[in-house]
Amino acid sequence: MVLGMKFDKNNFSEWFGKVLEEADVIDLRYPVKGMPIYKAWGFSILRNCFKMLEGELNASSHQEMLFPLLIPEDQFAREGEHIKGFEAEVLWATHSGLEKMDRKLAVRPTSETVMYPMFALWVRTHADLPLRVHQTCCVYRQDTKMTRPLIRGREIYWNEAHCAHATAEDAESQVKKALEIYGDFYKKLCVPFKALKRPDFDKFPGAEYSIALDVVMPDGRVLQAATAHNLGQNFSKVYGITFDDEKGAKQHAFQTTYGVSMRCLAVVVALHGDDKGLVLPPAIAPVQVIIIPILSKDEKQPVLEKCRQIKKQLIAEGVRVDIDERETRPGDKYYYWEARGVPVRIELGPRDLQNGQAVIATRLGEKKQVKQEQVVEETRKALAQTEKKLFENASEKLGQQTSKATTLEQLKQTIEEKGGFAKAGWCGSQECAETIEKQTTAEIRGKEKEEKAKCIACGKQGSTVYIAKAY
Ligand SMILES: [Zn+2]
């Protein structure tokens, strides 16, 4: 570990890789492309994210299950559009030991075709609906684009939810509910986003429509950080998910699916981190508060005892807290925990002990002397302030990264100079989308709401869309 190492965020791509490595988030040296090792600190952050999300899904009537990794070829290939969207990226299991298998098995790139034949067995009558299932697992995609740590990999750790509903209205409102859950989730990660309805040519293969949460990364490019899809009856017709309605007539179920991947970790690292390393939102920090005893030879024991007492008090309050009792210089410890992004640090030395005080420092640079009897309360405040400030800073940045364009030339200039989102009119034709992409290198990410505007490419009536360069 290089202590006191500085990271230069102006060079985002290099900064990102360095921080992931130095802060013990992932190790990229595993010899299969796009498959990182999540190290203890990184995996703990990621699991804290997913535990929060899983808890939220369970609390809103989703059942957590675990489905198989492999899909029989015929079962996988039944929905035409879906298979077309994924076939170029699928990894196949073709051999059983030395024998070639009669029926090859697809390694799941996503789980519709794993789950829906089972849904067909489980759903019988309207009383079985809605059925809401979710699982946290890895999916596999042999993406041909350049892999990027936590952003574009071949082994994707994610949580996917899949539902079946009795009516189109129920499916519609489930998509809204999913976006609310994801909105709350990203709020806890202090991450602002735009929820955009993707153009038809960019929707999920087999969906009626797709809505995605897009986040602007520090280099001005946007990253899709979550998606929700309304599948209509496409899959239920193919996989035979039917039910008897209240009048006893057979109906096909309406379906929805939505997911969040390890990209949530990429977004947290990218948006909040600085030249000292990670900055973690308190909700997901494996250690929310680190206590650093300032040790001198004579008064080591009393200082340590006081620190341990504070630790106990904070644990009793439900705070994730640790003491760094190592025999290294306090400055080295500061750097170490700063690089890991711990939101709050408490310092306590012999003089503080005498004066009945302690120092509380936040990862965002605020520092304050407090009375020992107020340490718990002040720590709580510091954590809450850090969460608030992180979200405010990120929201302000998103505001600066969103602009408007009324001509292609202006759009091109904005995208080049500022990056981020540009709002402009688009008529909805694929031809104009291609013109826009060719001339500006940016793509149409979708609509936030219905708002009339003239197409920036052809001048016809259309609506306002968000345009950006994307990962
Ligand atoms: Zn047009």
Main traits of this protein?
five-stranded mixed β-sheet, seven-stranded mixed β-sheet, 471 residues, Rossmann fold, binds zinc ion, alpha+beta, BirA Bifunctional Protein, domain 2, 28% strand, 24 strands, 3 domains, Translation Initiation Factor IF3
The number of domains: 3
Strand line-up across the major sheet: 3-7-8-14-11-10-9
Gyration radius over CA: 25 Å
What's the CATH class label of the largest domain?
Alpha Beta
Overall SS class? alpha+beta
Distance between the termini: 30 Å
**Which molecules are bound in this entry?**
zinc ion
- CATH fold-level name of the largest domain: BirA Bifunctional Protein, domain 2
Helix content: 25-40%
Fraction in beta strands: 25-35%
**Silhouette:** globular
Secondary structure: number of strands = 24
> How would you sum up the major sheet?
7 strands, mixed
Superfamily (CATH H level) name of the largest domain = Bira Bifunctional Protein, Domain 2
The total count of helices amounts to 14
Task: Describe the SSE topology.
Elements: H1 12-22, E1 26-27, E2 37-38, H2 40-59, E3 63-64, E4 70-72, H3 73-76, H4 80-86, E5 91-96, E6 99-107, H5 112-122, E7 131-140, E8 155-165, H6 168-188, E9 194-197, E10 209-216, E11 222-232, H7 234-239, E12 242-244, E13 250-252, E14 254-261, H8 263-272, E15 289-293, H9 300-316, E16 321-323, H10 330-339, E17 344-348, H11 350-355, E18 357-362, E19 367-371, H12 375-400, E20 402-404, H13 408-417, E21 421-426, H14 430-440, E22 443-446, E23 452-454, E24 461-468
Parallel strand pairs: 3-7, 15-16, 15-17, 20-21
Antiparallel strand pairs: 1-2, 4-6, 5-6, 7-8, 8-14, 9-10, 10-11, 11-14, 12-13, 17-18, 18-19, 21-24, 22-24, 23-24
The protein binds zinc ion.
